[in-house]
Amino acid sequence: MVKLKDMFRKTADLSPRGEKKKGEKAPEVPQGLWIKCPKCGEMLYKEDVVKNSYVCPKCSGYFRMKTKTRIRMMADPGTFQEWEEAVVGENPLDYPGYEEKLSQVREKTHLKEAVTVGSCTIGGVKTVLGVCDARFFMGSMGYAVGERIARAFERAVQEKLPVVLFCCSGGARMQEGIISLMQMAKTSAAVKKHSDAGLFYLPILTDPTTGGVTASFAMLGDIILAEPGALIGFAGPRVIAQTIGQKLPEGFQRAEFLVEKGIIDGVLERKEMKATVARLLETHSAERDYRKYTLPKEYQAQETAASQERGELDAWGRVLLSRSTDRPVCGDYIREIFDDFLELHGDRAFRDDGAILAGIAWLNGQPVTVIGQQKGRDVKENVHRNFGMASPEGYRKALRLMKQAEKFHRPIITFVDTPGAACGIEAEERGQGEAIARNLLEMIALKTPVLSILIGEGGSGGALGLAVANEVWMMENATYSILSPEGFASILWKDGKRAQEAAGIMKITARDLQEKKIVDWVIPEEEPADAQQLPKIAEQMRGQIIRFLAEQKKVSPTRLAENRYQRFREF
């Protein structure tokens, strides 16, 4: 099985390409045996570049690809059939010389327009495939580009097909003026109809993707990926620099920058492109609806393991264990429980929050959306993860992926482990209260199964923001509380040193919460969870999650939401 978890580039380890020097030509593959890499300047044997997916074997610089090459790389052999060939650009403004220029570009590129669309199979999944080509007026969008893309989405709706679109553009087609501008709204409207039909759209941003294309169909995907180092932005870097009179930072508007800022889901190497796209297409097919899940035979006869009461630990002892640095964190459980995991990034608005680890996982063939609060293992990682305390953009990332899961009827599993939500000036400025409130509002009504598992600390609203679920499970030595014992003692008794006493009366242990029906199942810990105990605990969780999925398939989407509402209505 293709493993996706290592396919996305780790943005922290990247050195994004700097801006092109003035007058530097865009990288293309010319005729001849030898070619020069425009990034590192090395002379390369062309055949080596072709074999390496048009990536420099010396410096990993990306060459721009021709339409036919891209289609050949992505589509299963012999399956691509072009659509809308008759839709070509005209001259709506009677701009002098435009028709002649169109003719010249068509002769040079052997393309009729800047985008080619059609149907094919990718990994056996029938798909609408579109490819933009920078050689044709820098991939700019005029009437013909907009019309081809709009028709492609409309036909995809009729035939119930996903869309994969390789985006590349310098922006609007200036020679077509206001007609070009209108294509932004037209293509966005077509994407909306496709989305409303419950169909999957995957734009892949290549170098460059700018202007009106960035501000329309390129940024409207269910998942948005980009090639390494691709220039992506609304205004061009030169325009920005001239406007603000400042030197732009290295890597500004590059693909890795957009991952860091939460705008796109990930950066994907070209050599892994087809395998990843094929897996995503299969994952988002109607056959992966939670209602079609089948319980594997090996799990059918097993029952939920009962937790034995171990009374040697008081509430404070469990608080200390829930905070232990030896305790497995969210990412550990994801690696142990699921067959594969593809991390997705960002809230699409401000930043990717490291405190929230989220993406799509696979369990016995069933895709699930996994979201968890992630603590670090050392000081550096804890700073990056903010000790598992999510910011507003973290909760908004979580909600974005929950709504994505709902659209495709994919179950949601959350792992809760946080001292609480991030607090501070920046968190308040960006609306921490609203972000958590929005999660509570939306999670109640999600029409797909939701399971929450408390694996460590369950701190106040920061924990609840990921725990509005059909079922809530809790590890034996986890805690779940309105506030930390220290905070509780400080507020009620004006003495934070009475934390141990507070823990004893707050009813924060798994057993306490099971008695109050806040928790459905207490996950046994024969020994306190650590690296040695992890495989055994994870295997037990895996079996119970599989049975949970099998049980929920019997419940309609509307009833799932109503059951969740009634669960919390009774408290």
From TrEMBL:
Compartment(s) of residence: Cytoplasm
CC cofactor note: Binds 1 zinc ion per subunit.
Residue spans, zinc finger C4-type: 37-59
Keyword Lipid metabolism carried by entry: yes
Domain named CoA carboxyltransferase N-terminal: residues: 33-299
Biological process according to GO: fatty acid biosynthetic process; malonyl-CoA biosynthetic process
Cofactors named for this entry: Zn(2+)
InterPro entries listed in its UniProt record: Acetyl_CoA_COase_a_su, Acetyl_CoA_COase_Trfase_b_su, ClpP/crotonase-like_dom_sf, COA_CT_C, COA_CT_N, Znf-ACC
Primary site of residence: cytoplasm
Enzyme class: transferase
Pfam family, one: Zn_ribbon_ACC
Positions of the CoA carboxyltransferase C-terminal domain: 301-551
Annotated catalysed reactions: N(6)-carboxybiotinyl-L-lysyl-[protein] + acetyl-CoA = N(6)-biotinyl-L-lysyl-[protein] + malonyl-CoA
Gene3D superfamilies from the UniProt entry: 2-enoyl-CoA Hydratase, Chain A, domain 1 (3.90.226.10)
EC number(s) on file: 2.1.3.15
Keywords: ATP-binding, Cytoplasm, Fatty acid biosynthesis, Fatty acid metabolism, Ligase, Lipid biosynthesis, Lipid metabolism, Metal-binding, Nucleotide-binding, Transferase, Zinc, Zinc-finger
Any GO molecular function: acetyl-CoA carboxylase activity
One GO CC term, this protein: acetyl-CoA carboxylase complex
Family matches, as PROSITE patterns: COA_CT_CTER, COA_CT_NTER
Pathway noted in the entry: Lipid metabolism; malonyl-CoA biosynthesis; malonyl-CoA from acetyl-CoA: step 1/1
PANTHER family: ACETYL-COENZYME A CARBOXYLASE CARBOXYL TRANSFERASE SUBUNIT ALPHA, ACETYL-COENZYME A CARBOXYLASE CARBOXYL TRANSFERASE SUBUNIT ALPHA, CHLOROPLASTIC
Family: In the N-terminal section; belongs to the AccD/PCCB family. Belongs to the AccA family.
Subunit relationships: Acetyl-CoA carboxylase is a heterotetramer composed of biotin carboxyl carrier protein (AccB), biotin carboxylase (AccC) and two subunits of ACCase subunit beta/alpha. Acetyl-CoA carboxylase is a heterohexamer composed of biotin carboxyl carrier protein (AccB), biotin carboxylase (AccC) and two subunits each of ACCase subunit alpha (AccA) and ACCase subunit beta (AccD).
Protein purpose: Component of the acetyl coenzyme A carboxylase (ACC) complex. Biotin carboxylase (BC) catalyzes the carboxylation of biotin on its carrier protein (BCCP) and then the CO(2) group is transferred by the transcarboxylase to acetyl-CoA to form malonyl-CoA. Component of the acetyl coenzyme A carboxylase (ACC) complex. First, biotin carboxylase catalyzes the carboxylation of biotin on its carrier protein (BCCP) and then the CO(2) group is transferred by the carboxyltransferase to acetyl-CoA to form malonyl-CoA.
Protein name (record): Multifunctional fusion protein
Organism this protein belongs to: Candidatus Egerieimonas intestinavium
Organism ancestry: Bacteria, Bacillati, Bacillota, Clostridia, Lachnospirales
